[in-house]
User: Fold this.
Amino acid sequence: MQQKSLLSEHFYPTLGILFAVATFLLAGLGFSFYESAIIGLWIVGIIFFLRQVVRFMKGEQAPKKEEKKPLASMPSKKYTPPALPRVSKDFRPMPPAGDKRYPPPSPFIKPPK
Assistant:
């Protein structure tokens, strides 16, 4: 396999750096920051477009996306929920009367039966 150049391997970050450098250089030359950003976008856009045209003329294929590997193997058997809820025998949905650790129940919510 042919080794890629640094520019072709990191093309999009290079375009971003070029945009930032062009914007700040143009702003330093007296353009407003807005104008220099627009000119920087034009420069980067033209370079991107020319690269796409050159790649099309050469007949290069689009890079293949890497296949994603599954993160973990799935369990072989289907999950079945437990028959009974997992609560203790003396479970109560409401705190005992007079228990100061909990706020009083809302008058708008009916307690379960």
